[in-house]
Amino acid sequence: MMLLLLAAPLGAVEKLRVLALFPGKAMLSIDGHNRMLQQGAVSPEGVMLISADPDQAVVMVGGHRQTLKLGSSVASRYRKKKRLEARVLMNDQGAYAIQGTINGHSLPMVVDTGANTVALSEHHARGLNLQYRRTGRETRVQTASGVARAWSITLNRVKIGEIELRHVPAVVMEGELPAEVLLGMSFLSSLHIRHQGNLMLLSKSQ
User: pTM for the complete prediction?
Assistant: First the structure.
C-alpha cells in the first residue's frame, strides 16, 4: 500500500519568499501572508520548514524540497504530482483484461499479480519483431502445467491506460501460450493497486 503523508491540506502555493532567518526558525512570506515557522512546523498553506539557520532555509512545498537564501523567492506554482491511471475491469472469466501496448504495438493483456514478470508467447514476440532467441537469455519458468522453456528479455516500453513504463523485464515463453500477455510484477511492482468491486485501479505518480 502506498501511504501519502500530508502534514496539512495542500493547495497551490504561488509565491514563497524568505523574509528573515534565525537558528531553527524562519519568517516566510507565503502568497502574501507572513508566517514565522519553527523547524519542523507546517504553515496553513502546507509549507513545511525542514531546517533553518542564519544563512538559509530548507522547505518542503507541494512535494518539492527547496533551499532558499535570505530574500530569495520562488514564484512558480507548485501542485500535487499528477497520478497516471489505468482502469481494468474483470471479465466474464474472472480475469482483469485490458488492451495495452508493447513498443507501441497493441496487444491483449491480463493483469496477473501472481506472476513475477511480464510473460508473452513466441507468437506475440514474432509480431513485435523481438529477436528474443538471439538477444535473450534462455531460462526455465514454472507454469501451471509444469516447467517451460523461455527467454529473458527487456521490453523497451509497456503501456496500459495512462501508465507507460520503460525497460521492463519480461520472458518469452516457448510456444503459443499465454494467449494474452501476462502483466506480472516486473510491471506492477512500481504501481499502486486498489479494487472497487469488479474494477481494478492502477496508478503511478508522474
Answer: 0.61
